[in-house]
Amino acid sequence: MTLTLRVWRQKDPSVKGGIVTYELADISPDMSFLEMLDVLNEQLILGGDDPVAFDHDCREGICGMCGVMINGQAHGPEQTTTCQLHMRSFKDGDTITIEPWRASAFPVIKDLAVDRRAFDRIIQAGGYISAPTGTAPEAHSVPVPKKDADAAFDAATCIGCGACVAACPNASSMLFTAAKVTHLGLMPQGQPERDDRVVNMVAQQDREGFGGCTNIGECSASCPKGISMETISRLNHDLLGALRAGVRPKS
Amino acid sequence: MPLDLFNVGDPIADTKAPMDVPIAERWSSRRFRARLVNPANRRKMTVIVVGTGLAGGSAAATLGEAGYKVKSFWYQDSPRRAHSVAAQGGINAAKNYRNDGDSVHRLFYDTVKGGDFRSRENNVHRLAEVSTNIIDQCVAQGVPFAREYGGLLDNRSFGGAQVSRTFYARGQTGQQLLYGAYQALERQIAAGNVEQHARTEMLDLIVVDGRARGIVARDLVTGEISTHFADAVVLATGGYGNVFYLSTNAKGSNTTAIWRAHKRGAYFANPCYTQIHPTCIPVSGDYQSKLTLMSESLRNDGRVWVPKERGDTRDPREIPEDERDYYLERIYPSFGNLVPRDIASRQAKNVCDEGRGVGPNGLGVYLDFADAIQRLGLSAVEAKYGNLFDMYNRITGENAYETPMRIYPAVHYTMGGLWVDYDLQSTIPGMFVIGEANFSDHGANRLGASALMQGLADGYFVLPNTINDYLADGPFEKVDESHPAAAEALQGVQDQVQKLLSINGTRTPASFHRELGKLMWDLCGMERSEESLRKALDRIPEIRQEFWSNVKVSGDWSSFNPTLEHAGRVADFIELAELMCIDALHRAESCGGHFRAESQTPEGEALRDDENFAYVAAWEWTPESAPPVLHREALEYEYVHLAQRSYK
């Protein structure tokens, strides 16, 4: 395959970026999207140019490190991560536009790599169950109904890639936060901190500068793990309940 | 063995496991005898933890909870990215919830046997003991394990065991366990007990007066190289499978932290023990950047076969039953498709070498679910393995519900690593090594679902108990960047970075990495021989020399520069590769994942030589011109008797 790539290049956050066009030949349809970028980068390095910086690690769709906008879609045309997207999804002669996630809470580091530490801070605000090592009771002392465990698992598969934020016209992180609130809220072990968790995580996502959720659904449609919008309903349910009960975020 | 390749030094021994009590009491005895640090004093001491996978994440969180000041380092943007996240199948624990005869002793026995009698009995027994605590801990954190309709935990079987002791969360067990540790770690960061260093890579160890006192690290965003100090350093930086370039490891997984610590005096144990996993998606082209594992749990229901005839290119569905060779079931009737990984991999290689391999290049075997789908129904198979079938479809474009998967072995895990004693302390006082980065528990072959168990055992339960005994002598005298040892380490790292940028040759770091990887796979892979290893040892120094005179690294040091990071890692892989080949050459026996062509039984199984090789090979680094020094740690088996492994 021969392709024309239009790639966002930005040396660092302090300078203005722009689209640069590259021509690429001899691309196999069995290559992954990132392997195609590897080919481009090898050429750039040998030509003495700066290779395109992009984040990636496991390349099997589970670490959540990769993610770019491909022709305006988060992770591209298939519902999967960028690393699991293969070139057979494109046609010979295609022009592909590649940009970083766009959200003020995800500042660009360089080219296609962005800073997603805001997600970690949302987890820090309450995305856990306080169970210091050694304090745990016997695992079978608390049975968990299978349907709750399965639904919790479905929500817990979120890989924190940020596609939901990138796809959302409001750059909202609601699906990310809701996935964790749902996972922990469905487990009996998560009940004691349930109210505080939702209130504090939502307060933190506001502080990070993510937009509000207006139930558009682009997040779920672009989520490589198919996290459902139902998690957002659960979050809103838990949030209202907690606020009515007088729970307020930690300052 | 010719002395030009290595020298032999004094034997080495673990002195920490209390041998005066029976094996089942040794861990509790060690915990009782190890000195404690009172909570007020813990606040005065700092521990650096490098890496945030299952071992590093759980250790950093637990040490933070215990009251130590922890500094945590990782090279990705978030601790949640560590490659433990990719573990699929499950985690073993001797709960005996199935009432199928499991026990701590059986898990201990299976693990020693599975490791082909090249692991330490004391460490393995402890691992089996704490396995049950791990499940309790993870359930308390809210890890959504698979459950039965009654709400209790489900189990599945895994290779190398005849009991069902593997706990799992669909095909994403590593992810869910890692998130448990990650959330515990984030809780400690929020509480101010753990200081975070994201996108920061350790590039050297600082040793002051014989004690590990800090690290030199590079901020991968700003490029700044700086020193960090502590009373103890914990390395949890994973394995070195990427020395083969193509492996199931993450692209960033590397040996740099442990290799540079090795060059500061930590012995490297059994570097040649690498695990080749039998069920991975076959290589499809030269551009390939990584290999993807299909969980071993698939062997519970999938049947492995190849055509009986060579060069049979028919569609697998058209090959009648009596023209198929279900070779694992044929050769190993009692374990069948569930033989340990090293055996399954080698048999796949054998049938492909005979010309009966399948797929475009003949390097593949079928993993067939037709029987399982007929027996259990499509939806049951989908519920159990759906995400794996989806992943297979995405990568190969084939539907494994309709046609058998094609699989082939790939490098997956390294049993070797830095030598540690029972306390998980390396030969450098104050430097502890946990998880895959150490060598301790798996011998010459790791059983499935045991890596997660070991990582979490080390991080949650072992290290936080043993490190106190060392820190009881602290806090140690304050050191800072003005100390000559720190200044020297910092300067060394800066010089190396400048050197890499200044060569400006004609080959990229990736091209060297690919060449090294192919050489290691061909000559030091699934099967090694004296001839192949000598060939590798002739070639590796040439690659090293060419690397240091012809690599091209673009960009500068003072910005985000992934090519520069890669170049430094490749430089270390080249040095490690040489030690791996020396270790593989000196061990003139076959054991577990280390298969020497010269040492096999008449049936082609690995033939150990217990008389000469029942030891851990711990290698001491020496400056470039001198060969490494071998220190032997004798392995003694009091409880599991040495025997030829049999899974027939």
Q: What do you see in this structure?
A:
The complex is a heterodimer of chains A (251) and B (648). Chain A has helices at residues 33-46, 117-124, 146-156, 163-167, 174-186, 194-207, 218-222, 230-244; strands at 3-9, 18-24, 69-70, 73-74, 95-99, 108-110, 113-114. Chain A is an alpha+beta fold. Chain A has a five-stranded mixed beta sheet. A two-stranded antiparallel ribbon of chain A has the order 6-7. In chain A, a hairpin with a 2-residue loop joins β3 and β4. In chain A, α5 (174-186) runs antiparallel to α6. Chain A is elongated. With 648 residues, chain B is α/β, with parallel strands linked by helices. In chain B, 36% of the residues lie in helices and 15% in strands. Chain B is built from 17 helices and 20 strands. Chain B has a five-stranded mixed beta sheet with strand order 1-20-19-11-17. In chain B, strands 6-3-2-10-18 form a five-stranded parallel beta sheet. In chain B, a hairpin with a 2-residue loop joins β7 and β8. In chain B, α4 (104-114) packs across α5, α5 crosses α12 (451-471) and α14 packs antiparallel against α15 (530-550). The longest helix of chain B has 25 residues, at 562-586. Chain B is globular, with a radius of gyration of 24 Å. In chain B, 61% of the residues are buried.
Overview features:
heterodimer, A: 251 residues, alpha+beta, Ubiquitin-like (UB roll), Fumarate Reductase Iron-sulfur Protein, Chain B, domain 2, 5-stranded mixed sheet, two-stranded antiparallel sheet, 8 helices, 7 strands, 11% strand, B: 648 residues, alpha/beta, Flavocytochrome C3, Chain A, domain 1, 5-stranded parallel sheet, 20 strands, 15% strand, flavoprotein (chain B)
